[in-house]
Structures are given as structure tokens and as C-alpha cells.
Amino acid sequence: MKNIWFHLFISVLIIPIGWVLRSIIVSILKKVFNDGVLINSFKINSLIWIFLLFLFVLIEIIKVWLSFSDVNQKFLAQLFFIFEKIDKLIVFVFIVSLFAFVSAVIIHIIKGSVDRVDAPLPNVEIFYNLIRIILILIGVITALWYMGVPMAPVLTTLGVGGLAVSLALQGILSNLFAGINILFSKIFEKGDYIKVDNQFEGFVEDITWFSTTLLMRDNNRVIIPNSKIVGSIITNYHKPTSPMTIVIPVGVSYSCDLEKVEQVTIEVAKEVQKSVQGADPDFEPFIRYKQFTDSSINFNVIMRVLDISEGAHFVLTHEFIKKLKKRYDEEGIEMPFQTICIKKDNCVK
After folding, report:
1. 225 has which bridge partners?
2. Rounded CA separation 221/211 (Å)
3. What is the pTM of this model?
4. Main-chain dihedrals φ then ψ at residue 299, nearest 5 degrees
5. Is the pLDDT score of 349 beyond 50?
């Protein structure tokens, strides 16, 4: 009897000794890792481990004591059967708890890698929770296998369930993977001015895992699913640089002196280029004749703005057309326009 009390005393000592060791390890973790989630995970799971160890040792002591006692053998067999199930339950809880802590360690490692990624990532908790669920699920399957549960039906059920969930969430998952592609490929970033399939044009206000928000020039917000963006033609006016060339088409009459037309047009373009706010004052405008048409000789005037997102290209085009028309009138340069002659016949019945 003295031995049993001694062993019980030793089993009880597991709790304070485990608590001291736990406190030492927690203090070390706080100094080494600046991650509250990892430390809290260890705090919770270490308490579980201490309790499970105490319970396991206590049961083993009781089993040894019962083996040398005068307890009825049938009753003893029932007790040992119960203890065996409790032992398996202890191992089950320990394995799941261990995998829960391992998930916290892996998430800590991933967080360190994500922090080094030069990308404005949105809330990544969804991925951390997904990793946590997957690892804990693996722990549950491992524990069930240890307890002797057949794995084939479990894996089949998980496979069918996973397939059903993936089909049900097909749209969400496609947007999610498209969002990952957008964020890591950096085809555009927050603040960029983009055009999507010649339908939507505006500033990128927000990029999430599932959608992208554009702020239009009319101050309306357009929320576009990421899967649609990935499958569209994207024009990014901020890349590779913000300055953008503006091409303005013009046509003059065949009777005009093209040398004079070029000289006058460039003079007007330079004046506008230096006077309009948002235009590139250091850029030298030029023209390029393009084609002969039925009534005019057409050419393009090439100018530049510093940033299209400011709307300077609208003002630049506006001012250039006004000043060019006025100057052409002064210089006698004709800009042909389409005329339609209507002939009315007097019909006598």
C-alpha cells in the first residue's frame, strides 16, 4: 500500500513539474518568437499534454495496483477494458493536440515568408485557417487509424465530400485562385489606373482574394470578380511608367502646304504642351502624316501627359483642338469637312 501511495505522489508531481517546465519554455518562446498565436497555441496544448501525461501515469499505477489486488477477475477484466479505451482516447487527444500545435508552427513559418513578399496582400487569415483545419484533420485521421478505425471508408467519404464541396464552391474557388494570381503576378496594384476589356476604366481601389474594386471617374465603384479580370484584356496606364503618349488625329485639305501645316501644328502643340497642367513640359510634340483619303490628308499629332489618371489627356486634347482650329483659320489652312448636296427634281404627273 505504501508503494501505491508513493507512486500516486509521483504522478501528482507531474502537474507542478510540467507547469514549471511549461513556464520556462513559454518565456523562451516569447524571447525568440514575436508571435502571440504560436505562444498561445503552445500554452493551451502544453496544458493538455500535462493533463494527459498525468492521467496516463495515474491509470498505469491503478492498473498495476489492481493487478496485485484481490478484485474479482471478471470485474477486473471490465476495468482493464475501460482503461484500454481511455488509453486510446488519451493518445487520440494527444495526436490531435500535437497536430494543432504543428499547424501553429507551420503558420508561423508561412507568416515570415509572407512578410518578406513585396505585395500588398489582403487578409490572409483565410489561408491560415485552411492550413489549420487541414492539419488538424490529418491529426484526426492519424488518431483514428491508431485506434483501429478502418481508413478506407473515411478517406472515401472525405474524397466524395471534398469533390462535392469543390463543385459547390467552383465560382468562389476560381475567384480565389484568380486573386492569388493577380496579387503575386502584380499585373496591377492599388492606385493604378486600368481599363478592363474596354468596359470598365478607373483607379484600383482595393484587391481582395475574391474581387477587385475600381473607382470610376464618375465616382462610382465597380466590383469585378477576379476570375473575370484574369480572363480579360487589361490595360494598365501606370506601367511600365505613368507618362502616356496622346495621339490626336487631324486632317487638312489637299491644297495645303504640308510643310507649313507641320510647322504650324507643332507650334500649337508645343504651346499647349507647356501650358496645360499635367502635360509633360519637357516632351517635344511631333506629327506623322498617315494617309490620303477622299477629301483630306490625315496625320497624327503626338503629345504626352505625365499621368493619365489625373485626366490631363482630356484637357490636353480639348485645348489643342481649340487652339489648332483658331490658328488654322489665321493661317488659311483648310480643314475639309463632308458636304452633302441634295437635288430635288420637279416631277410632273
Report:
1. 211
2. 12
3. 0.52
4. -150, 165
5. no
